[in-house]
Amino acid sequence: MQHQDGPSLRRVLGLSTGILLVASSMIGSGIFKKVAPMGEAVQNGQDVLLAWLLAGVVSMFGAFSFAGLARMTEEAGGKYEYLRLIYGRFFSFLYGWAYFSVIGSASAAAISYVFAESVNNLFPLPHFLQPWEDINIGGFIYPFANSGVKAFAILTILGLSWVNIRGVQKGGWLNDVTSSLKILGVLLLIAIGLSYSGGPSAFTSPGPEAGSITGLGWYSALFAAMLSAFWAYDGWINITFMSSEFQNPRRNVPIAIVTGTALVMLLYLAVNFAFLRVLSISDLEVINEAGNQIAGAEAARKVLGDPGYFLLSVLIMLCTFGAANATIMTAARVYFRMSQEGMFFRRAREVHPVYQTPAVALRIAMLWSAILVISGTFDQLTDMLIFAAFIFYGAGALGLLLVKRQGRIPGPVTGYPWMPALFVLFCVGLVINTVYVFPKESLTGVGLILAGIPFYIYFNRQKKAD
Predict the structure, then answer these.
(1) Per-residue pLDDT at 68 exceeds 90
(2) What is the phi/psi pair of residue 141, to 5°?
């Protein structure tokens, strides 16, 4: 480790904040949107819930695996640090660079953009650059399109970065408040859905193709629905990036990962059961094909009318705002740790002398996320690298099997070895299937990862010079 003189990060966060941080990182807009494409894929409510359950179980296997890895170290960086300790600098750098260039930064941009869109749906924002919206770069980058939404998304990124620079406790407090409110909102939505008793539902009125989906076709449809669910489950790993700021991290971080993931899994199952009691498969197909409708909002409108739609829209705003804060707060710790190891820009390792936060790393991430918002390419980038996330997930779980055998993690690890082994097998299967079904996007994603090699060479030379 590269030690530094001067201020260091403060170990002030507790277990409750950790659990809520896991929940906040996971609960965004996916909980309200993904039931529509899932319903169209499998054509009945029972299989939609099965897809949510299976995706949740796989996510729990991953959570237990990384909970075991979290006992290896108390340093910041989470998955980056685990991969470095297991496989060395090169492989961990590829993950860290992919996370900075696309995965983390594009996620912050995308979530902030969805938050701005939800604000725009209720309170229309001025498109002050509308006369220039057709100006493009390469035919796919339109920097001036949707200028009002983009400007609000950038202001959101700037504001949340400012709060998190001012102190990890301020960012943690904001996370606790937003997470608690959105969990209460989801519970209210569940109660509303369960109280509904009128009209056909996805359980009583399956789609017209339900009986014809059999054999391999059924497995294929179920797998497609699970992929939608994984998008909503993603984020449980983010807490590990902040291990150096948690009290007793070898205990609290593993507990928070498992407890937070289990809590979200139960909420997802309950709220989607509520949605499926209100909406039929035909309703879900119409919503999915419309493209600009949200299943949760339409369910609330069906039960409570326009006031229900308004309340659900406010809840979506709250969920995406909280998820944006959690992403911005956690991602910068990866770049901070990379810089400490000499594998990122030197100034990113600096700690604010007053607030004791990775202020420079937060500013670098803020700038790049804002650029991605302007470019409007964040969705395309994350689509290209969605399979890459499971390459690194699988590598982490495989690493747990390796280091546990080497005795580098003392004591028992819950679920070892069968949970990490099954999780590795699932990750391998998902990556192979994605490459087969989406070869162009997958190869482009690999290219984006390998584009970090010149930076690795540069940082490695800089590290030797230091």
Answers:
(1) yes
(2) -105, 115
Q: Which domains does the chain have, with CATH numbers?
A: 15-465 (1.20.1740.10)
- Range among 192-196, 203-207, 456-460 with highest mean pLDDT value: 456-460
Q: Is 207 exposed, middle or buried (0-12, 13-18, 19+ CB in 10 A)?
A: buried
List the alpha helices (DSSP H) in 27-146.
Answer: 30-33, 35-42, 45-69, 79-87, 89-98, 104-122
Q: For residue range 200-236, what is the model confidence (pLDDT) as tens digits?
A: 788 887 766 666 677 788 888 888 889 889 888 989 9
Q: Write out pLDDT tens, residues 388-401.
A: 888 999 999 999 99
Cα 121 to Cα 8, 33, 115, 322, distances in angstroms: 42, 15, 10, 18
Give residue-wise pLDDT tens across range 432-454: 888 887 788 788 888 888 999 99
Residue 192: name the closest of 266, 264, 263, 278 by CA.
Answer: 278
Count of residues in the chain: 466
DSSP 203-230: TTS--TTGGG--HHHHHHHHHHHHHHHH
**CA 268 from chain center: how many Å?**
15
- What pTM value is reported for the model? 0.90
Separation of alpha carbons 417 and 200, rounded Å: 45
Compute the distance between CA of residue 388 and CA of residue 382 in angstroms, rounded to an integer: 10
